[in-house]
Give the backbone structure.
Amino acid sequence: MLDTPDEGRRPGRRPPLSASGRELAPAITIRRTFREFWPDTRGLRRHFAAGVVFAILAALCEVAAIRLFGHITDEVLTTRNLDAFWSPAAIWLGLAVGAGALSFAGAYLTALGAERFLLALRDRVYAHVQTLAPDFSEKRRLGDLMARMTDDVEAIEELVGSGLVKAVTTVAGIVFFAGAAFFIRWDLALLTMALIPLFVITSKVFASKFRTAAARERASNGAMNSVLEEGLANQPLVQSYNRQDEESRRLHSEGRTWLRANMSQAWLSGLYNPAVQVIETICLIAILGFGAWEIAAGRLTIGGLLSFAAYLALLYPAVQSLGELALTVSEAAAGSDRVIEILHTKPAVRDAPDAVAMGRCSGRIVFDRVSFTYPGRSRQVLRDLSFTAEPGEVVVITGPSGAGKSTIAKLLLRFYDPDSGRILLDDTDVQGITRQSLRDNITVLHQETLLFSGTVRDNIAYGRPGASFDEVVRAAEVAGAHDFIKLLPQGYDSPVGQRGRLLSGGQRQRIAIARAILRDTPVLVLDEPVTGLDVATAAHVMRPLRRLMAGRTTLLITHDLRQVPEGARVIEIEPAPREERIRLKRVGARSGWGTST
Ligand SMILES: Nc1ncnc2c1ncn2[C@@H]1O[C@H](COP(=O)(O)OP(=O)(O)OP(=O)(O)O)[C@@H](O)[C@H]1O
């Protein structure tokens, strides 16, 4: 296989790699990549097959056109017989138009197949990520996950879809052009083939340097993007701490490293092309010299020699592009490794085969001796936790930071299953209920209000897709949000900004409450609903929150017992003991941490 520098690659399209360049080697075999992703080409294979057929036909047209060119040279130009010109010229024109149309059709169908493949694969990976617990995304760098779902998915397409089409058509082109050259003069063609190793050696020398340069470019591109992403995401912090200059300097410094990496790539590709051209010229001069000798001896016509040279002019670039393809393939395999890692991550929980869809429940929740340890962790977070929340009851869950309060919500929603014990909703084990119907019965209001960057109306209506505008307004009124929404420049159509940053903390929380009101589920989980708000705003938010809680079973997770509604039962979660203490406890008596007071 040949390796050549790849000029055509978009800078920064791939995820950052270390400067060593070792990571460019495929981490898994190409076979495994095909085994995993070939099924995704189902329904698209006819597009790719048509792309191959059309590209091959176009190449055949080119072969025939060159043959005609030789014929015109010998029969018209050399003999000065203009009458013999018109019909081959007309056929030549027809072949050119035919080749153009076939190339267009082939490129279009391949692109259509490629884009549909990208769409389907991205959807598949994203859908899979949605089956994983939210922690999967939270534990990873967002930029990296996004790169996997965009750049790496694209890299896979370049291997399994359009890359395969290109490989087949390039090989076919090489066979045709070399075959046509052999047909004219096999001995001259053999001489030409003998010069191909010159291309191979040049490609290899450049490719190894280019890989290192490309790896450095990607590493610096990744570093620069991280600085940009962090700087923009934390702009309020940067500005309030007066660190703008520092951040600009960081960006400039990373930008300079990127510039240097790009320049070494540019230097290499700039040098590579002239080097290849010199070799090509050497080949052509050798052939013309040998051809002139043969013409003088009457063993070759001028048209034959020119056609021969024209075939070579197509053959050498085809050999080169096969080398480029080898580099693309090796990178694509590395990209597919990262996507396969996502796809092979198993969801922590699945619906049981006999899981039932639960209708609207009355809201009785039972935690029965629940113990839980996060996957991959040795420290138990909850042990033997037991409590019951009756329909419509407010149960306050409190305890120090890290005690496992939010974990209770994750278990109730079945992001995880407990190691032992049971969680019941209306006396049915949640593991016997489909996750969709379980979550349809529960609304969580998170500590950090989560809004999308749409309008106020979109964010409230997210609670119930298809809700009418009147319903949205009514929910906002109950949530105490209507008054401030009315005063926004575009009312309910005002954009809330990135993660709702155009609104105040209290306003964001009231929109989230309106969304929860619209959702209208029998069970509510409020995870630190007023944390981060000042006392006055918190009191302001508590009023609509009480309206929201009315008649619903509510687990109110909070540090702040001042906000606890009257008559609510309080469960105190004790902090998890250190690991040594667990071991000691295992030896000694077991004791439950969940105590209701
Ligand atoms: N996804 C996770 N993977 C591993 N450990 C986790 C994960 N989420 C939380 N933990 C750990 O589990 C423990 C309990 O976390 P949890 O968020 O439930 O605490 P909490 O009581 O709600 O704390 P806080 O009041 O500070 O929000 C912590 O030690 C935390 O580090």
Strands lie at 365-373, 380-389, 394-398, 420-425, 428-429, 442-445, 523-527, 553-557, 569-573, 594-596. The chain has 19 helices and ten strands. The CA atoms of residues 289 and 342 lie 59 Å apart. The first strand starts at residue 365 and ends at 373.
